[in-house]
Amino acid sequence: MKKPYIVGIADMKLCRAPGVLVTYALGSCIGICLYDNVIKTAAMVHIMLPTAPPGVPVENVYKFADTGVKEAVRKMVAFGAVRSRMICKIAGGAKMFETFNNPEWGNIGARNAKSVKEALRREGIRLVNEDVGADYARTLFFDSATGIGTIKAFGKPEKKL
Known about the structure:
The protein is built from 3 helices and 10 strands. 21% of the residues lie in helices and 34% in strands.
């Protein structure tokens, strides 16, 4: 395998075939893979939080699901992707910690997943596969030549996305 492009936390990378994108430590964060099969171009975003705070300038759009999805789609289109051909696959969104005083607030992973899906719907991008939830972290690889994601997690069998 070719050396992968590493996508950090609150980061986005874009590549063409035969590039491979990878992001590590997807706990409550979500890895979002956008793909255009015709031009074999992929983008991966590693978001941390569901929505940017209203009325506050955002320093890093990739930190939030709502702004990160929008900007990644914009960059894919700038690189020749066609919105109607784009698909998306996501992974992460785990419930990493138990909170007793406010269980809904503690499940940031579920809130992230919901926000990503809403952002994709607003952008008109089809979500075709997901591996979200549970209580463990994941590493996500995405192959721009095939559009196949691979999920690795400690103590779990490898999964295709």
